[in-house]
Design goal:
The protein has about 375 residues and is an alpha+beta fold. It has nine helices and 15 strands.
Length: about 375
């Protein structure tokens, strides 16, 4: 497990003119609300329901090629040197944190937590970038690594309530006081969260991650939650309206065996709507047949394409997985993986899919509270 000192609660300064995140965020918000002129005073113009609409719009907009390239360039310029030059993936869509004054009153306060509680793997690193002034009670509070590990162990062993946990957090956490042009870097094991914002103005921050090659991803899947630099397929628009597609659902891999079919179908349906794919019918794999004979059968039937929930729905057996992928390429059947916004059409696509599938590990060693 790699631990880099530069990621243990450290601050990074960057070129704000080159990476003007406040300007980008304001422009995106103005797509919805043209009259908004100040990020810090946005709470004076919008309702609590609008806050969620704003954050969702900005986060979805970060999947545009323009912004994906900006994150790629930022990571190459400032981040790669801080992980020893190793390969990395980038969070597919960065999060926009929006902390309004007295957010406790409208039930928007972020509880204290560490990244592992949110299914993050320890191979992730967090880049937290305020796009407004972050100070005092409007900022993120964070603890150092050793105190975070000790408190996490105490929380789990004693089964503390959230109120007890947060009381302990306030003993070891301090606010990150930063202006735009600075980012805060930390591990997933750092406890962090918010207190009630009593400053009178809104704080916004972009929160994103990288995943280091060969390290631990937890439940944040390479290819899905994370993309490779330069992988902009999510923003490509194709028209498949006149193509014949079937959709396929299975519960036979380590990934999908506990995912209800209705949830898988929801992911698939959203992807099909985005790509304008008309679904000719849903095909289900037979339970307990982990070599996926139904999928093989439909590949041999040669529809234009088959949409699966995820590339992680393929067989866990590597030889069998490789056989099905190569069979699809040979038969010129496009396999689309909805969760990863990725498709298999060529041998080049096959290389990319295997890159994601082999990039990192689910878990490496025990967590600090398991020792």
């Amino acid at each position: 497990m790699l631990h880099y000192k530069e990621w243990e609660n450290k601050t990074l300064e960057y070129d704000l003119k080159k990476y003007n995140w406040p300007k980008h965020v304001l422009e995106l918000i103005q797509e919805l609300y043209p009259k908004i002129k100040s990020l810090e005073k946005i709470h004076l113009s919008l309702s609590p329901a609008d806050f969620s609409k704003v954050t969702l719009h900005v986060q979805n907009s970060f999947s545009r090629v323009k912004y994906m390239k900006l994150f790629d360039n930022f990571a190459k310029e400032y981040i790669q040197s801080k992980i020893g030059g190793k390969k990395y993936l980038i969070k597919r869509q960065a999060t926009l944190n929006l902390v309004v004054p007295n957010q406790v009153k409208i039930k928007r306060k972020l509880p204290f937590h560490q990244g592992i509680f949110y299914n993050n793997g320890r191979g992730q690193r967090t880049i937290w970038m305020p796009v407004t002034k972050a100070e005092k009670t409007n900022s993120m509070y964070i603890a150092n690594l050793q105190e975070s590990r000790a408190l996490t162990k105490k929380v789990i062993k004693a089964q503390l309530s959230q109120e007890q946990f947060e009381k302990e957090c306030l003993k070891i956490c301090n606010p990150v006081n930063l202006n735009p042009g600075y980012a805060h870097l930390f591990h997933q094991e750092h406890i962090h969260g918010n207190v009630n914002n009593e400053t009178g103005y809104t704080r916004m921050a972009i929160d994103w991650h990288i995943l280091i090659e060969g390290e631990e991803y937890g439940n944040r899947l390479p290819g899905g939650f994370f993309r490779a630099p330069g992988d902009y397929e999510q923003d490509t628009s194709n028209n498949y309206e006149k193509k014949s597609f079937v959709t396929y659902v299975s519960n036979n891999s380590k990934f999908d065996k506990h995912i209800p079919l209705v949830f898988q179908r929801k992911v698939i349906d959203e992807y099909c709507n985005h790509k304008k794919i008309k679904n000719l019918g849903v095909q289900f794999e037979n339970e307990h047949l982990d070599w996926l004979p139904v999928l093989e059968y439909y590949i041999k039937q040669k529809p234009y394409g088959i949409v699966l929930c995820s590339m992680y729905s393929l067989p866990d057996d590597l030889k069998r997985r490789d056989y099905l992928l190569k069979l699809a390429v040979k038969n010129k059947v496009e396999l689309h993986f909805a969760n990863e916004y990725c498709k298999l059409k060529t041998h080049k696509d096959l290389k990319k899919i295997n890159f994601y599938l082999n990039f990192a590990k689910y878990k490496k060693g025990k967590h600090s509270w398991e020792v």
